[in-house]
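fold description:
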Amino acid sequence: MDKSLKLKGIKSVLFVCMGNICRSPSAEAVFSHKAKAQGLSLKIDSAGTVGAHAREKPDHRAQKVGVERGYSFEGLKARKVKVEDFDDFDLILAMDNHNVEELYKIAPGHLQHKVLLFLDFAKNHEETEVPDPYYGGVNGFRFVLDLVEDASDGLLAELQ
């Protein structure tokens, strides 16, 4: 299916990574900030395919580099993806192919079309997946933000 057809009438977006403490909350914070700055009213959330960090705040390193760039992580807490999310969200954006596969395992068949890779919307980077920065240093978190900002800008341009 043509990606542009999937984006018609989008009112809600869910960002998904594995634990929902690094990449997807960063994407939620960045995309929320940029959407609000453009005057868009969207339902925006994030979740993980694994629930090991449920109810935890985002990783302190993700918060540090995000706040340095002007993003708020206020009120964000990790949660696991639920089957209901496929009904509740128009677009479900995974950070990498592994999480796309995990989402396909739980998505009702008729709703799998909502799942895309977030970096499909990036215009200035060749990467196709947002790498997990958890086991690396702060520069990995900065690179995640670079990718997330690029893909957020690309997605917002397509939603306008």
User: Anything to note?
Assistant: The chain has a mean pLDDT of 95. The first helix runs from residue 3 to 6. The two ends are 20 Å apart (CA to CA). The CA atoms of residues 114 and 134 lie 27 Å apart.
